[in-house]
Amino acid sequence: MTDVVDPKTRSRMMAGIKGKNTRPEILVRSALHRRGFRFKLHDKTLPGKPDIVLPKYKAVINIHGCFWHGHDCKFFKVPSTRTEFWLAKINGNRSRDSLHRDALLKQGWRVLTVWECALRELKLDGYEKVMEEIIKWLTVEPIPSTEITP
Question: 21-148 has which fold?
Answer without folding.
Answer: Endonuclease; Chain A (3.40.960)
